[in-house]
Design goal:
five-stranded antiparallel β-sheet; 4 helices; globular
Length: 134
Amino acid sequence: ADAAVRDGALVRLLLGASPAEAAAALDPGPWTVVHARGGDGTPFAAADLAASLGTALVETDATASPGKTLERLGEAGAARVSGAAPASVRLLLPASSPLTARSGWFLGASAPAEAGDLPAADRQAARALRRAEA
């Protein structure tokens, strides 16, 4: 989806649309939630990971928690510039997108989920990341 479509979906969500309605504007689904930890400590590590996975839907907040809004990367590829790799990165991919190991990153992925099931998929991806790091 292009930036205008993504922005429109976010506006719909913020103005009261259900997650399923907003997600349908991006892609009909299902979706895969990916949690990642790693990178080289530069501000662009999460942006590089997102680009390599083919998504602009990423949250890089070090205090990421379920229920937060995913952040869209800008054209320059920078999310929030903190000077260090985030403690956790969450990404949202169409389920049809391939997910393969990335050097320097631990990844945990959910099973494909419809928009209404994304909170459960987010928890599943978090558990998968903890297992990958163990």
